[in-house]
């Protein structure tokens, strides 16, 4: 009767020891990101606008230094702006303006 309990406890102890493995190696990961922006600008007095669709993209680098902590840095190029619309009886007028941004967010990577 003691034999199955002893085997069960030995297996449980071996699994617990395997889970405590502390051989962590730091790692680097690199990648690219991209997408689109839909932007408007707030004016006073208010100007009739539509959403302006612009591209965005960049590079990403992530460094995991410990088993549950790391840092992530991105370098993004983003276009933003507005599309001004004027609808009159005679014609439909559009004016758009784009602003270019270079962003560098620094993020923590905690898990």
Protein model, in words:
With 111 residues, the protein is an alpha+beta fold. The chain is built from one helix and six strands. The longest helix has 18 residues, at 2-19. The radius of gyration is 28 Å and the shape is elongated. The protein starts with a helix and ends with a strand.
Write a concise synopsis of the structure shown.
By secondary structure, the chain is α+β, with helices and mostly antiparallel strands. It contains one helix and six strands.
What is the strand tally? 6
Percent of residues in helices comes to: 10-25%
Give unreliable regions as ranges.
Answer: none
Radius of gyration (Å): 28 Å
What is the overall shape? elongated
Average per-residue pLDDT, rounded, comes to 83
What profile does the largest beta sheet have?
A: 6 strands, antiparallel
What's the SSE pattern?
Answer: HEEEEEE
Proportion of strand residues: over 45%
**End-to-end gap:** 43 Å
The assigned structural class equals alpha+beta
**Alpha plus pi helix count:** 1
């Amino acid at each position: 009767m003691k034999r199955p309990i002893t085997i069960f406890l030995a297996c449980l102890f071996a699994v617990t020891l395997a889970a405590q493995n502390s051989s962590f190696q730091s790692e680097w990961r690199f990648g690219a990101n991209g997408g689109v922006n839909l932007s408007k600008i707030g004016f006073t007095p208010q100007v009739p606008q539509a959403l302006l669709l612009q591209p965005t993209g960049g590079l990403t680098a992530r460094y995991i230094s410990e088993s549950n902590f790391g840092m992530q840095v991105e370098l993004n190029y983003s276009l933003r702006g507005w599309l001004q619309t004027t609808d009159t009886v005679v014609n439909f007028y559009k004016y758009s303006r784009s602003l270019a941004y270079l962003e560098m967010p620094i993020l923590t990577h905690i898990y």
